[in-house]
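Most newcomers find our protein records easier to grasp once they have seen one. Sequence and backbone structure share a record, each on its own labelled line. To make this concrete, we reproduce a full record directly below:
***
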Amino acid sequence: MTEQRHMCIATTMCPKCRELLCEECLMKGIKENGCCYKCKQPLTLEEIKLKRRGSTMIHTTDFSNSDKLPPLSAKIGNIPKVSSAISPLLSPGRSLSFSSNDSSLAASEDSFLLEYKSSEKKTNSSIPSSSYGESVESQNSTGKSSWFENEKDYSPHSNANMFDLPTTDEYITFTKESGSNAKIIQYATLEKCLQFITSKNCEDSYFTQCFVYSFKLITTTTKLLKLLIILFSPNKPIDMLWNDFIQNIIIPTRTRILALVKMLIQVFPNDFKEEQNQEAINDLIQLYTTYNKSMGLNLQKSFDNRFGLKMECVILKRNVPLLPVDDKFSGILCISPLDFAEQMTLIQMESFVAIPSDEFLNQGWTKKNKEQLTPHIVNMIKLSNKLIHIVQTEIVMQPTYALRSLALFYFITAAETMRTIQNFDGMKAIVTALQSVSVFRLKVSWEMLQQSTKSIFTNLVHICSEDNNFTELRKIMNIAIPPTIPFIGSTLTDLIYTSDGNKASTNNKFNFYKLRGIGNLIKEIQMKQKTSFSFNIAPNVRDFINSIQVISNEDQLFNLSQKHEPKVTEKFIDLTKKPYKHDAKEAKELLKSYLKRIKQLR
């Protein structure tokens, strides 16, 4: 396989690196090496088929054979291994399952690529010659006729001259990525960028998708639609024959504008509540209907169904059994840590899904008026902070060593469950709470944990380490199959880094390579937003979580921690001797009793 061959038929997108690649070479690389030839990430033919179908996959972990499960470093297609912290809480045959259903987004992406690439098929088919004044007919790949204006009746848009710009460095510059000869826009005027990405010469259809997610950094939806309406009817070059104009400019331009506008409607449906944008779409529908009735109907259908792809996180509701409150267990301990992890994940997923794409632009969450600029992002951050405070409060409020040790076990188990079901934001929040001063200083309570639980916590800390910009956490998030909730902190950091690390413009040209990077990040986020978890809502658990009174003041938390467990001066704590021997025995018996009773609930 050579890179030249890779670029010859770029029709298939790798689900890992999201690059548009040669289908033949991608398939060959998978069969021979089990990976994408471009990004080298493990890949299977089934994943490619799933991507095309946009079908539903159910990933189910059987805890009865947990030793046979793949390790933590398992690649895509394997289920995260469930540790010994979770297995004892499950009744025989019980399993955690989560669904991956990104059919709407997958179908949308596939539709975009199909329409975008179809312009090449249409321009590759010969157009019958015609004499001046006769209509010209072309057969597209579906066999349906596309009718075009007579040359004598064709009228370019009155402002079409704004797109009559030469392809020179004054208006557009290009770059290339390693291993590829495809032109990638680096800097350009907006008009020249639009002209290029809708032309037959543009091989970078992936950029067009990224552009849709990030164009609001440089213009508005209203202005963009106006430009596309102008571009729909360009000037015919003086030295170009009519048939060549139809084949090389009109067909690819109008086909790619249609694909771009349809994706624009899907990504930002709320923008089309505005009257001026509705009028622009109606104008485009009229233009397409006159040009090709089926394309007009296609755009009309997308516009009519613009709110039809909204994802419902969960449909079914069911209460789950809780432990009765008694002298031993009360508060959050009455809820299984697995149920807590699942319900907290659903709450966080609903918050994550609610974030519109344009809130990820312009770093509004860093500004003073962030609650007005990015209310949904702020809400998700607040939810993560609340989870941190829930963990801290529930641990430091426990009056005995045994109960504090049990509470530590509880939240370590919840964090491990979140890792398994791929709620990385929730997992990171719990680990942050467990590492906070008020909790981490509880040396005796920590020492009473079983070694297996300590090992699980050590692994979670390793995953959540901030070293090298969360390297380990990023590795796991990158190979996670949706449904998943990314750690929102690193996601927002990436957007800031991509934005601040590149100049916005130079010499009246915009940095479209920067927009490509930002658009790629937002596209990845939206893909994760479109996939739901299969857990049912448990109203009784959610009501309890929402009603928890937390202590958010770090000084108060620290004072409570000191009150219930004074500072230990010993370097090594011997639980086999006084004064901890009795408490250690009590902690062991309490954990055993708790596991037995929780397992009976499931």
The first strand starts at residue 10 and ends at 13.
